[in-house]
Amino acid sequence: MEHKKIILGHGSGAGLTHKLISEVFAQTFKINHLDDACKISDKMVISTDSYVVNPLFFPGGDIGKLSVSGTINDVAMSGARPTFLVAGFIIEEGFEISALQKIVCSMQKTAQQAGVQIIAGDTKVVEKGKGDGIYISTTGVGILGDGDELSVNRIQVGDKLVVNGTLGDHAVAIINARDRLELDPPPMSDCCALNNLVQAMLKSAEVKFLRDLTRGGLATILNEVIENSDVGIIISEELLPIKQSVSAVCGLLGLDPLYLANEGKLVGFVSEDERLLDEMKKHNCARDAAIIGEVTDEVKGVYLRTTVGSLRPLPILNSDPLPRIC
Amino acid sequence: MEHKKIILGHGSGAGLTHKLISEVFAQTFKINHLDDACKISDKMVISTDSYVVNPLFFPGGDIGKLSVSGTINDVAMSGARPTFLVAGFIIEEGFEISALQKIVCSMQKTAQQAGVQIIAGDTKVVEKGKGDGIYISTTGVGILGDGDELSVNRIQVGDKLVVNGTLGDHAVAIINARDRLELDPPPMSDCCALNNLVQAMLKSAEVKFLRDLTRGGLATILNEVIENSDVGIIISEELLPIKQSVSAVCGLLGLDPLYLANEGKLVGFVSEDERLLDEMKKHNCARDAAIIGEVTDEVKGVYLRTTVGSLRPLPILNSDPLPRIC
Q: Chain A closest CA to B137's CA: distance in Å?
C-alpha cells in the first residue's frame, strides 16, 4: 500500500477506496466481485453497508432513512426484491434518546413504505469522544424472481443508459447542511428506497444491469461497471438531469455533479424501450427519469459529450472531497 | 424512558440494554423475539452484531476473530450451520493499515477454520476523534437442517444445563489487557467459533435450546431464557467450571464470574444424555464441558445452590461494570 495509515479518502468511494478494498479486503477474503449484493442461495441475495453520515439529520432525510433505503437499494440493484433487514447500532455515550427514537421511527417508516421488514438488531455503546452520535450498519436480504438476475456481463454495445432523475442532490444537501451555506430553499437529499421502481423497470424493459449512484457519483460508478470489459460509455451533457440549484452550488465550490453521491438514484443499462421512461415516471422517485447515453465500442472508458460536441474523459478520481456523505 | 441520554450501561447487555431494546427498538420495529438469530426462510437464519471491543488486540484474540466467531455463534445457537458472513468496517482516520491487515487476516483465518465464507463488505472512514481505531459489524446467515430448529418453548422441567467450559475468561482477559493488571501468565480470552461443537451436540443428544454466554454472562442470559416461562433454574456452585485465576481476579475486583461475558461459551438445555459430555469434550473448545444445573418447577427465576446448600437468587443486574467487552 502507498499509505501506511488510513486517510479520509479511503472512505470516499473513489480510487483510494478501491485500492484499499482490492489490496486488503478482497485479497484476504478472496472476493472477486464488485457488485453491491451477493448471492447466498439460488434465490437469495445479501448486501451490507455501514452509515456514518454527518449531520445525522438533513433536509430530505436522516441517518435512519438513509441506512434503510441505502441497503434496500443495494439489494434491489441485483434485481432482487428486498424482504428483510437487520441493523447494528453503535451509539456514543450522551446521545439523546429522543434523537435515537426519531431515527428508529424514520427507519421503520422507510422500511414499511418499501415493503421491507426490520427483523433484528444489535446495540453497542461507546464512550463520549469515541463516536459521533450514532453509526448504523444494516444488512438486507432479497429474493430473486425468475430471470431477474442482472449482470454486468449482459451489457452490450448499443444499450442505453437511463437514470431516474437529477444528479448530485444528496451531496449538495449534505454540504449545505454541514457547512451552513444557508441556501434558500435548502437543497433536499434524494434519499429514498428504489425497490418498487426497480420492479417496475424489470417488468417494462429488458434491463441488463443496475447500479445505485452513491459514493463516487455517476462518473466513478460507470468506470467501475466497465472496468473489466471491452466496451466504452458516452453520456451526453445536454441529456443529464441536473437541478439548477445543484449546478450553482457546484460551480461555486468547484465540484462536479457527476462525481457527487446520490442516495435515491440509479443508472440502468437497458435495451431501448419507449415504454420504460413512461413506466418509470409514474414513480415519485423517477419523475425526471432520462436516457443519458449509451454503450459503445467507439471509445474505451467513460466519456462526456459536451454541449459543444467534444468528448471529455471522465476518469476515476483518486479521492473525493466529501467525507461521511453516507 | 427513565434516562434522557444514552449511558454506557445501555450497551452492557444487562437490564438497561433490555429496557432500551424493548422500549425503543422492539416496539418501533415490532420485533417480539429475543433470539440472537432470526429466520429469513424455511431453512435460513440471519444474525447481526457490531463489535467495539477495547483493546482491539488481546490475549486469545482480536476484534477480527471476535467479530467473526461472535456472529457465527449467534447463528449456530439457532441450530443452523453458519455458511456466509458479510462485514462492515468503520475505521478512524489515522488507523495503521498494518493493524487493519492483521485484523482482516484474523477474520479470514477464523472464518476458514469454522467453514464459513466472508462474501462481501463495506468500508467507511470517520475523522480522527470520531471513532476508536476500528469498529466492525458482521452479519451471518446459516442453514437449518431438518429438525434442528431450537426453541425456548421446548425447554421442560428436568432438562439439564450444560456449558462447554470455564466461565468469565473473555471478560477477565479484556480487563487485564485494558487496565494493565499485568497478570502473569496473562489470562486468555475464550473467543472462538462454536459451530462445529454445536453440530456435534445436535447429533449426540436431544438439544432443546442453546445460547452463547456473551454480554451479561451466564446469570443474565439464564434470566432472559426463562423470562416468559413458568419454570425456574437452579445451578450448582460446586459444578461450575471457573478457572482459579479468574476467581482470583474477580475476588480482587469485586466481580462475579456468573455475570461476566464469554466469547466462546454456550449453555445448552438438554435431556440427559451420557454420551453428550464425551462427544463435547472431543472439541478443543469444550474440554471442560460440564452439567451445571437443571430446569425445575421448585422455584421461579434463576438460583445458585451454594456449596453450603443454600439458594442464592441470581437476578438480572441493571448495568454491567464493563463497557466495550465485545
A: 7
**What pTM, to 2 d.p., does this model score?**
0.96
Sign of the torsion angle spanned by Cα atoms A49, A53, A56, A57: negative
Burial of A30 (0-12, 13-18, 19+ CB in 10 A): exposed
Residue A93 confidence (pLDDT): 97
Please indicate whether, in this complex, the C-beta atoms of A92 and B122 are within 8 angstroms of each other. no
Positive/negative CA dihedral, B81, B84, B90, B94? positive
- Peptide bond preceding B55: is omega within 30 degrees of 0, i.e. cis? yes
The ranges assigned to domains in chain A are 41-75+82-141, 152-313
What is residue A34's predicted lDDT score, i.e. its pLDDT?
66
- The Cα A321–Cα A179 span in angstroms is 13
Contacts of B107 in chain A (CB under 8 A): 28-29
B31 contacts A120? CB cut-off 8 A: yes
| Residue A187 distance to chain B (closest CA, Å) | 24
Contacts of B10 in chain A (CB under 8 A): 91, 123, 125
Q: Which three cell numbers stand for residue B67?
A: 467479530
CA–CA dist A3, B286 (Å, integer): 43
From the list B222, B224, B223, B77, the residue with the least C-alpha distance to B151 is: B77
Residue A181 confidence (pLDDT): 83
Domain A41-75+82-141: give its CATH architecture. 2-Layer Sandwich (3.30)
Least CB-CB distance to A94: which of B5, B40, B105? B5
- Cβ atoms of A290 and A199 within 8 Å: the answer is no
Task: Kindly give the parts of chain B with pLDDT less than 50.
Answer: none
Most confident listed range (A22-36, A143-157, A196-210): A196-210
Residues B97, A4: C-beta atoms closer than 8 Å: yes
| Spatial separation of the C-alpha atoms in residues A221 and A105, rounded to whole Å | 31
Q: Which residues of A touch B40 (CB under 8 A)?
A: 44, 83-84, 119, 141
Q: Is CATH 3.40.50.720 the right assignment for the domain spanning A152-313? A: no
Instruction: Tell the residue number behind the cell numbers 416496539, with chain if given.
Output: B27
CA distance B247 to chain A (A): 27
CA–CA separation, A71 and A47 (whole Å): 7
Q: How far apart are CA A264 and CA A34, in angstroms?
A: 20
The pLDDT of residue B325: 93
Name the phi and psi angles at A29, rounded to 5.
-80, -5
